[in-house]
């Protein structure tokens, strides 16, 4: 009876002061949403980031830092400083441990999107997320030299359809590059969205990369040496070099041995990395930042809780009469104290509930933006235990901090007698 | 073994014996050698401002305890009980009306009146668990317009608020009603009507009233009169 009465009183009193308290609820809701959002995005971005590539056991390229190799081969960020000779590629793929190998030749672009020269093996072997494969719809992989398969975002952004002709540019900068306008490519396939950098790239055959650079020397076309598309088709299009290669290993236990062998390759300095390990390393670089961000939002929540207590303490001065009345009716001082604690906890719970809605709403709105801006595909998922823990901690902290006004009310209600003396 | 003294207090609602009281950090002290109110007897307490009228009511309500001597409520040695027991006794047996601002601001009148029933099982049982009906009946009897029962209490006039407070004090017929200048904010008409209704209801519930007032005109309705100043011991 007493507990029910206390809760009923607390509810009625909160409702009575809803005007003032809605601001308290608003600040608390915003800060808890922020906390939840940061924690949620942090894990989601990590998940999405770490699953940019899967199913590939090794990435091999010319000697460079593992991070650089990962960035240019998977994220299409930055450039390779050196290439790998085709003969070396041929040699290393002879290793018995190699199950499959997909070469990649980078260095050209189309309207800011990277162009990747590769083999159709790429569409078979490249995996992302939980072993998801690339699918092309509509269309098919490239077969002719001047066929191109484009990523989902490339198609969406420029509204490309199957059969459209596009021109590739030399270089990966955003301005002043030479266009390969003498050899237009035909869109023969559009990849389904993956939420990875694949969406932002175009895929052509290795031969195509050779063909568009026929008659070039040191990265510029030699005047008077232009070849037509038809002439190019007839020429020997065996690649001279590639930028990197994705490798599948027959037995996973052989991965490290293969990596060691290639890292010590005698003919040409190579670097081989395990993409999973490299991704985790890269994530660790960001880890300090996002932990700091979470801590900051934690402080924001704490500040809002202190603000709530300040408001409760202020209103307490106006509520001495009310407390004296309750005492006179027979309310024990414990009930008076509980009233303040229950009110704090209820405010916190309402805010947490609102924050839950606000965060999910906010995430739903933000996800397309994040995908468009960062190429990270996030998904709405149920909250994790950690996130529920964070949410649960808010009313708990509210309870703890409410002990300040509660104990004050308790002591006052004992000394006030019949008439509180303001 | 009962002494004659015990027998005497048993029939009384309220007895004070040789009580000494002083607030902490306050030089004024009170000494009440002997005071007794029997069931149905009503006491009228007057005295200058600061003479300790509210102080005595706080003692009678068990909100504070005397340094020595004893206060007996319904045969129970009230002032030596634990705080928890005094809260319980107050909830069960005492109704209190203040001078003003009697009501819990966020509850409508009808809920304010029912409140004592939520704190005391005894008073709930006395109205046969029909708190709502009892509250309705009291509000009706005390002439609080039904249209105001559910409005915020701030919408009520001071006189109406005092009558709601009286209804709340009377709910479940507590043996003792303490009223601390409940009419001082009312005009003469309202004051007389209020007192009339309060005494009527107290008579029906067989409750004893201790009524504090500055206004000697009200005194004639009471069987006992006490000047607070006679008990006050102002330091020299
Ligand atoms: N809760 C309290 N704590 C300490 N001192 C108190 C307390 N309540 C009253 N006093 C002191 O006791 C003395 C008597 O005050 P009290 O309120 O009982 O007078 P009163 O007769 O009711 O006066 P009034 O007619 O103005 O209501 C005053 O000096 C007051 O300061
Ligand atoms: Mg007084």
UniProtKB/TrEMBL annotation, chain A:
<dbReference type="InterPro" id="IPR003838">
    <property type="entry name" value="ABC3_permease_C"/>
</dbReference>
<keyword id="KW-0812">Transmembrane</keyword>
<feature type="transmembrane region" description="Helical">
    <location>
        <begin position="388"/>
        <end position="410"/>
    </location>
</feature>
<dbReference type="InterPro" id="IPR025857">
    <property type="entry name" value="MacB_PCD"/>
</dbReference>
<dbReference type="InterPro" id="IPR051125">
    <property type="entry name" value="ABC-4/HrtB_transporter"/>
</dbReference>
<feature type="transmembrane region" description="Helical">
    <location>
        <begin position="334"/>
        <end position="358"/>
    </location>
</feature>
<dbReference type="GO" id="GO:0005886">
    <property type="term" value="C:plasma membrane"/>
</dbReference>
<keyword id="KW-0472">Membrane</keyword>
<feature type="transmembrane region" description="Helical">
    <location>
        <begin position="292"/>
        <end position="313"/>
    </location>
</feature>
<dbReference type="Pfam" id="PF02687">
    <property type="entry name" value="FtsX"/>
</dbReference>
<keyword id="KW-1003">Cell membrane</keyword>
<dbReference type="Pfam" id="PF12704">
    <property type="entry name" value="MacB_PCD"/>
</dbReference>
<protein>
    <submittedName>
        <fullName>Peptide ABC transporter permease</fullName>
    </submittedName>
</protein>
<feature type="domain" description="MacB-like periplasmic core">
    <location>
        <begin position="23"/>
        <end position="211"/>
    </location>
</feature>
<feature type="domain" description="ABC3 transporter permease C-terminal">
    <location>
        <begin position="296"/>
        <end position="413"/>
    </location>
</feature>
<keyword id="KW-1133">Transmembrane helix</keyword>
From TrEMBL, chain B:
<keyword id="KW-0547">Nucleotide-binding</keyword>
<dbReference type="GO" id="GO:0005524">
    <property type="term" value="F:ATP binding"/>
</dbReference>
<dbReference type="InterPro" id="IPR027417">
    <property type="entry name" value="P-loop_NTPase"/>
</dbReference>
<dbReference type="GO" id="GO:0022857">
    <property type="term" value="F:transmembrane transporter activity"/>
</dbReference>
<dbReference type="Pfam" id="PF00005">
    <property type="entry name" value="ABC_tran"/>
</dbReference>
<dbReference type="GO" id="GO:0016887">
    <property type="term" value="F:ATP hydrolysis activity"/>
</dbReference>
<protein>
    <submittedName>
        <fullName>Putative ABC transport system ATP-binding protein</fullName>
    </submittedName>
</protein>
<dbReference type="GO" id="GO:0005886">
    <property type="term" value="C:plasma membrane"/>
</dbReference>
<keyword id="KW-0067">ATP-binding</keyword>
<dbReference type="InterPro" id="IPR003439">
    <property type="entry name" value="ABC_transporter-like_ATP-bd"/>
</dbReference>
<feature type="domain" description="ABC transporter">
    <location>
        <begin position="14"/>
        <end position="236"/>
    </location>
</feature>
<dbReference type="InterPro" id="IPR003593">
    <property type="entry name" value="AAA+_ATPase"/>
</dbReference>
<dbReference type="InterPro" id="IPR015854">
    <property type="entry name" value="ABC_transpr_LolD-like"/>
</dbReference>
